Amino acid sequence: MHEIRELMSRIKVLLICILYFLNVSLCAQTVSGTFYNVPPQMVYLNAYTGLYMETVDSVMMSEDGRVEFDNVGHKGMYQIETESGLYFDFLCDDEPVAFVLKNENNVVSVEFIRSRLNNDWHKYKNERASYDEKQQLLKHVLRNYDSNTSFYKEAKYEFEKNQTDFKNFTDSLISHGNYASKLISVDRPPFINTDDSFTKQREDMKTAFFEMVDFTDTTLIHTNVLTTKVIDYLSILQFQGQTPSEQEFSVILGIDNVMNLASVSYPMYRFVFEYLMIGFHELGFNAYLDYLMRMPYVEQLDADDVELEEIYDLAEKYSRVKIGIKAPEITGVDINNVEFDLYDIDNDYVILLFWSYSCAHCREIMKEMKYFLKENTDFTFLSVCVNGERKDIKKLIRKNGLKGYFYHDGLSWNSPVVNAYAVTATPSIFIIDKDKKIVAKPFGFEEINDFVNSIR
């Protein structure tokens, strides 16, 4: 009897241990937090894929400012965003994330509880911003002042000291060996030798730019670190004194190098390929799109026929919505039960907006659109809501007194219209002329107004 009780006791202990570790496993990907001095409202959990985000969960803040998410599906970078527009980024590895956000006198601060990797990452991002600002100011002096002056020598000393201090600071964070350490290693800019000529500095920077990037590491896909790195790399290839054709050629060579590096694996190649296609598609840079459509280094991929077909489909998809191409047809019944056909709209221009109700920037554009349309009667407004409840969309349209066509098929990112226009993020804006050709892809009202000024 004693042996049975002892056996049962051991089983009980074992079950407690199993349940404890199971609970830890289930809670390992939870994100919880408290908001101070923030009224109760919807809070969204957004997941990064490169520079683009997708809302993966949303909860209503409790009366005492608490939220909890348990839908964090993978290691990577995420964002918490409130309905009123507060937001911050964080990293998720294999441990729960807890935060406290305080809004005091309109100054917002975020603290992470027992999360070294997030504390490391935020320390790094703050220091990096300060470092970049200082170095840019000092670079201007080093490039424009006589190297024999004391002012130049003082600036050079400060530049080198900032580099050394920043290196020591980031080395200390990298030594922690966590997920943030890896991202800091990738994100940290190359250091330069101020005794070299600017030409050699640029060449050395280009050579060293991706030294710390492991292109086989697919966790980089779920952050904005690699995509930011690629943008920075393509930016340094363009410099003052180049002709437009020289700049274009430099960027194409840079794209070629990036695609070669990314060809080590199919997931990375597909991610970088689509990211560049999306970026150049949104910017309307047809020369770079045309080069990417050749699918450089695709022959080096260890990919099966299905995967290769996906790459071919991506190239074809973005070729359909280049500037100068006929806009894909949109026809249907809008949320006010009004039948419409894009090709039947008889006006000089159609401004086509893809937006999401959960996107604060999108809602701001919808508010401003009323005034834009009033001043520009040669534009007709056609909106396609990707995400949102029908009643919320109708309420927003009525509140802002908007006129136009408001399409919402409820299919979210699976909508044929969203796919036809290769939309991957909201807001996405197209301007279509009387002949139904895409003539511009502005990012916001500043660029919309630039377009209007160019045609007046």
Describe the structure.
The structure is a single chain. A hairpin with a 4-residue loop joins strand 5 (76-82) and strand 6. This protein has a five-stranded mixed sheet, with helices on one face. The protein has a four-stranded mixed sheet with strand order 4-1-7-8. A four-stranded antiparallel sheet has the order 3-2-5-6. It has helices spanning 2-27, 116-144, 150-174, 179-187, 198-208, 225-236, 244-262, 266-283, 286-292, 305-319, 360-375, 390-400, 416-420, 445-455, and strands at residues 31-36, 42-49, 52-60, 66-69, 76-82, 87-92, 97-104, 107-113, 331-333, 339-341, 349-356, 379-387, 405-407, 428-433, 438-440. Helix 6 runs antiparallel to helix 7 (244-262) and helix 8 runs parallel beside helix 10 (305-319). The relative contact order is 0.07. Residues 1-28 have low confidence and may be disordered. With 456 residues, it is of the alpha+beta class. It has 14 helices and 15 strands.
Furnish the topology, listing elements before pairings.
Elements: H1 2-27, E1 31-36, E2 42-49, E3 52-60, E4 66-69, E5 76-82, E6 87-92, E7 97-104, E8 107-113, H2 116-144, H3 150-174, H4 179-187, H5 198-208, H6 225-236, H7 244-262, H8 266-283, H9 286-292, H10 305-319, E9 331-333, E10 339-341, E11 349-356, H11 360-375, E12 379-387, H12 390-400, E13 405-407, H13 416-420, E14 428-433, E15 438-440, H14 445-455
Parallel strand pairs: 1-7, 11-12, 12-13
Antiparallel strand pairs: 1-4, 2-3, 2-5, 5-6, 7-8, 9-10, 11-14, 14-15
Helix pairs in contact: 2-3, 2-4, 6-7, 7-8, 7-9, 8-9, 8-10
